[in-house]
Amino acid sequence: MPATEPLSPPRLEEIEAAAERIRPFARRTPLLQLDVDGPVEIWLKLENLQPIGSFKIRGAASAMARLSKADLADGVITASAGNFAQGLAYCAREMGLPCGVVVPDNAPRTKLEAIEDLGGRLQPVSYDRWWRALVEHAYPELAGRFIHPVADPDVVAGNATIGLEIADDLPDVESVVVPFGGGGLSSGIASALRARTPETKVYAAEVETAAPFAASLAAGEAVGIDHRPSFVDGIGGKSVMKEMWPMTSELLADSLVVSLDQIAEAIRLLVRRAKTVAEGAGAASVAAALAGRAGNGRVVCVISGGNIDADRLRTILAGQTPE
Where are the alpha helices (DSSP H) in 52-183? Predict the structure, then answer.
């Protein structure tokens, strides 16, 4: 598939097939109500409880399980800042395959060590070169089948299985807030909910230091932004990928942009009230819901991952926001 060809939302039967494919690898995660002060009723979809601490295992398993032995003869490769690489490395290890990972040179050490622990081979490059691999859907310097962490139909279908689980467990949910990285998670979940609970609104949660979807909505097309690195490293790219824009702009109700301070406070609240650890991206959905941005009804916040650097978590729990 050419890198610029727009993706279409997965159909319900494709999502249900993906749910069967990922069953040997991914867990069916619980919904937990968060004790909060205020009118909003917040439920947490705890994808930080996956074997790799992130939802990314769903898309990785869905994509790999569709490939033939010939496709996988040289193993798999991807470009990832951490969580998708862990998902791909985990599945590759289970299948006895090599896995190469192109990583940006500013990726958190915690995530890089986790990739290596799972057998992934790291290829550090500059952020710009890493981003180019994502745009081009390729990194010719490494052997293996390239699996895109976002713009791959089978990855999106795997992500969408979260939406099926939400619809089964909480069918009267008013809105769902999803951290927005490249749009593969949010649009996948929105596709499933459109089929099962069409009245549910799905919102993207972005961080103020890198909110390409909000900027693209304002412009009416996929645009680039000035990307500022922060402790919220799992979301916020340089732009919305052109192949993802039609699907995300159609399916998502809006972008809810929150500050670094709001995300840090959400992480603290999750530890205090829910006894759960979220990384910055994972807590962005909670920060948006706490601000009342997703309505005052029953809201599900997707906790997309819990792979946060220990020093950053220590700083946050001490009441500060990491620089």
Answer: 56-66, 83-95, 109-117, 127-136, 153-169
pLDDT of 4 above 80? no
Tens-digit pLDDT profile for residues 204-258 = 999 999 999 999 999 999 999 988 889 998 888 888 989 999 999 999 999 999 9
pLDDT in tens, 94-138: 999 999 999 998 887 878 899 999 999 999 999 899 989 998 999
Residue 50 contacts residue 90 (beta carbons within 8 Å): no
For residue 169, the enclosing domain spans 12-55+153-317
Task: Identify whether residues 98 and 39 lie together within a single domain.
Answer: no
**What is the residue whose two structure tokens read 């530890």?**
271
Distance CA 256, CA 177 (A): 9
Average pLDDT over residues 277-295: 95
Kindly report the number of other CB atoms within 10 A of residue 107's CB atom.
20
Domain assignment of residue 204, yes or no: yes
Token output for 68: 């033939």
Q: Say if residue 32 is in the same domain as residue 168.
A: yes
CATH code for the domain in which residue 232 is found: 3.40.50.1100
Strand order, beta sheet including 41-46: 31-34, 41-46, 298-303, 175-179, 201-207, 255-258
Number of domains within the chain: 2
Helix axes 12-22, 56-66, angle to 10 degrees: 90
